[in-house]
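worker-03 picked up job from queue 'complexes'. Input manifest follows; two sequence lines, order preserved.
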Amino acid sequence: MVQPRFRRVARFVSPADRGFAAVVYGGSILFALLIIGLFIELVLGSWPSIAAFGPSFIWKSSWDPITSNFGALPMIYGTVVTSLIAIVLAAVIGIMAAVFLADFAPRWLSAPLSFLIELLAAVPSVVYGLWGLFVLAPFVRTAIGPAVQKVLGWTPLFSGPVYGVGLLTAGIILALMIVPTVTAISRDVVAAISRDLREASMALGATKWETATRVVLPAARVGIFGSCVLGLGRALGETIAVTMVIGNRPEISASLFAPSYTLASVIANEFTEATTSIYISALIELGLILFVVSIVVNALARLMIWSVRGST
Amino acid sequence: MKVSLLRCLTMAAAAVALTVPAAAATQLTGAGSSFDYPFFSKAFYIYNQKNPDVTVNYQSIGSGGGIQQFTARNVDFGATDVPMNAEELARASAPVLQVPVTLGGAAIAYNLPGVSGTLRLTREVVAGIYLGKILKWNDPAIAKVNRAMNLPDMSIVVVHRSDGSGTSYIFSDFLSHVSPEWKSKVGTGKSVSWPAPSAVGAKGNEGVAGQVRSTPGAIGYVELAYVIENHMPAALLQNRAGKWVACTTETVAAAAATKPEVSATNFSIVDSGGASSYPISGYSWVVIYKNQSDRNRAKILYGALSWLAGPQGQENAKSVDYVPLPRNVQATAQATLNQMQR
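worker-03 finished. Artifact:
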């Protein structure tokens, strides 16, 4: 008896709803179009370079604007390595901070502390860059470098002269920049884990530490992983701060102390003064590669999230 | 009441009448070299004080961008640290006039802790260091010309600009002139492939200066105005005449004065022969179209640029630590500007 009336009400769609639906659909389609448009534009812009160098652009290591001989491998390497250093450091610090803020810190401490960490995200990247150049780089050269080399200098990873600027310094700066993202999201995820789980764990005699590491974190891992992916996305594309501390040398070196280069840095450095068309096109192709690298990394992360979800 | 209202209206009308010429003021637009920006903003500000009906809006977007905007005819003039080459001129598809407007030089800054006195470098030593052939500060080639100094057994860290820049162009042009090996292996350009094994790239003058300051054993080239304003110690260079010269506005101007017949195809003044010439010097340029569609606008543009390249405009260079064009080069610039159709 009730059903016919219900159906009639459901069939009635007010103009406001239609409008709202159009706006929402339009908005999401706009994003999709933007991404596709960006991709097409990048491919068109880099076409002269793609035609001239072919796929070897990706594995060649020379970058010489005078002879118009371009290869992107050192920049791909620099981008991936600095982002990996950053995400490893930021994940460790960020997750620990998140657990502390959500489960351990007293309330009078956790609110101002969260605020301060989130404030770090609002610092402009050029400020991080300047700090990196004038404070962190000398510190790496005089303190971190010698100390690490004393112990691990025999490994190729930490060999060679320490200039202060280089892969490691860039990685540390990037880590600082993405820690707020990782911390803020992870804290919310950890805080959202049901109290029942924690209480059950405590009731079984687990300590706070055991509860956090064996119950809460595993339950929150998908969300935490998501926060790391967001952080990684920012690390891959970060430009100015990295440019100031990476040393800008298009060379692949095993040592983390060696100067390197990232895709975004080359574009920032050379685009404004690039005059020949093949040069500009090669720079745009670097942008295309950065775009593809970001998509691949994000896709891999998605796959990992799905597989983690599947096993729960 | 009525009277006062009428008075108000007349005053308003008068005010409108007065503002009409101001509203018709011409705004010239230019874009390009960031090196030129401090000089242009100062000079065009003064020009506007003297000619209130002309304002010049200059966007410092880099020489490459300036040439693009100019080619697309989005701006009245472009500014570039290196004259437009044949390929760029072909793309502009109309006759282009290139006028020298200011000068720059690159000083060699260094960081040698505990060493007093001013370092002296020959042209060959600078090339050797940047080629990666001279790796230590106590290398005999450096020690030979710095006998009074106690040079340390320290590795040289070679610092260069990572961003494409006119300063890098002048510096690599200098190295190409003094070292055949540099010319064949590396070449001249705003961005080059730096061969030294210890090469570190830093962004902007402030980046190079910061890197040199914070790295013991570092050497780097920095734009003259930046060195003067920050009181940085810089090396003395031996010029082609064999004299030791510091990088100052006078020595850079002296280098320019040796070659008054400068043109867009023959513009290099590095390693020039004068006794007081600083060897790492170069021009910056303004580019305009020879044929202008709007005669009135062309006249105003001609007026502003003639003033800029003339004695009054060049006077403003000194106050921002830029190098005024020598008189003979001002005449060359004026002669080029006179070819503009107006």
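worker-03 released lock.
Chain A has a mean pLDDT of 89.
Chain A has two domains: 15-55, 56-311.
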